[in-house]
Amino acid sequence: MIRLGQRNVLRGVSLSLAPGERLAVVGPNGAGKTTLLRALAGLIRPRSGRVSLRGGRGPDEPASRAGLGFLGHRAPLYPHLSARENLAFAARLHGISDAAARIESALRTVGLARDANRLMRDYSRGMQQRLGLALALLPEPDVVLLDEPDASLDAAGVDDLPTMLDALAPRAAVLFSTHDERVARALGARIVRLQAGRLMDDPRAASAAHSSTIRLPPPPRPPGFARAVWAMIAKDARIEWRAREQVPTLLMFTLLAAVVFDMAFIAALGSEVAAVAVGVLWISVLLAATLAGTRLFATEYERGTLDGLLVAPVDPSGIYLAKFALLALETAFVGVAQLVFLSLLLNVSLFQASTIGAVLLASAAISAILALQSSLVVNARAREMLMPLLAIPPAVPVLLAGVGITLGALEVTPAGQQGAWFGLLAVVTVVFLTLGTVLYPQAARA
């Protein structure tokens, strides 16, 4: 049973597929087809019952997801990466050894070889669907889940579907949803009908007897944890370099805030330039982290790429750590730039080893807090309002420590207190990083 909100979406659904079988789930909108596929992919936890792949392992285990291909309503594609780069990123997450050859084969099979170096944002909807199919079939999975694979494809694309499956996943058990029974027949699939969350047919009645004799190769070995995290960080850095969606905006906003605050308060406070500089610095760091953190997981969620990360054979805690690293780098960059800017603007010696260290460590602490919060409220409608409210209370110790270290560097307070403040920043960072790595895998799947 699967329950969404106050409604039971699926009830008493039982399916069994052998290698080489193709099964089409047909039903009207709202019948539960998408929910069924997402549950089988491990993106939704059943309230009762279980999903098992490859000898009884559940889809929440990275080893079982190594042999799983999934394509939902939205292909998990990054607009600022080319088709080849999208496939290369997926190949790294799946640990495909002959990645270059496999990518070229997939591009030729889905008819995108000539457009492989174009950015995905320039693709038509039909081309995106073809690339999504290549992405799902890239690791030569033994279980393939496709949510309306014929969506957005023209007649030629629908005709090519059997060829794509036969060429890229010839021995896979394929389960897909569709509104068109002609697509199911073209793919040589058995058909079951889903109505109001219940199967109207016995999916075991016409099971293909020959399929149980197919011997499957071992799935690709999942990449190591560190390699998967690095692949996600590198992907995010490349996208930011091309799109410039975060850092330039954050930098200009915080520098403008510095100018406004300086003009407003220096005239009123007279000689208290150091106090103004310290306050502006740490408010800027908090604002930069909060603004960037609000979109940290939301962008992946809205593009549908978060599903692609969760279905990949990587530990979900690695997703949290990669997002944390990106946010920490962006926040630290803004903080160090603000140190330089304020030092020049106010003629205050802020740019010191201790203040640089404080900005770097405080950026890590605030980013650990905000990355966890961003991951937990990614589905919330009011996340843009919730994030600042949630960020401020746990960030107060970080701000106090940052202010204390900076005042010590400027000799406003005794420099001997800096060690305790650095210790506080380290504790906050470790606590929230630990919470994030433990809690995110539990919260990632509904």
Would you give an account of this structure?
This protein is α/β, with parallel strands linked by helices. Helix content is 57%, strand content 8%. The protein folds into 2 domains: 2-213, P-loop containing nucleotide triphosphate hydrolases (Rossmann fold, 3-Layer(aba) Sandwich); 225-444, no CATH class. The strands form 2 sheets. The chain has a 6-stranded mixed β-sheet, sandwiched between helices. A two-stranded antiparallel sheet has the order 1-2. The longest helix has 31 residues, at 316-346. The chain starts with a strand and ends with a helix. The model is unreliable at 205-214 (pLDDT under 50).
Compute the CA-based radius of gyration. 26 Å
Structural class comes to: alpha/beta
Task: Give the termini distance in whole angstroms.
Answer: 14 Å
Low-confidence stretches: 205-214
User: What can be said about the biggest beta sheet?
Assistant: 6 strands, mixed
Count, helices: 16
Number of strands: 8
| Element pattern in H and E | EEEHHEHHHEHEHEEHHHHHHHHH
Average pLDDT value?
Answer: 85
Strand order in the largest sheet: 4-5-6-3-7-8
Shape: elongated
Estimated share of beta-strand residues: 5-15%
Helix proportion of residues, in percent? 55-70%
Oligomer: single chain
The tally of structural domains comes to 2
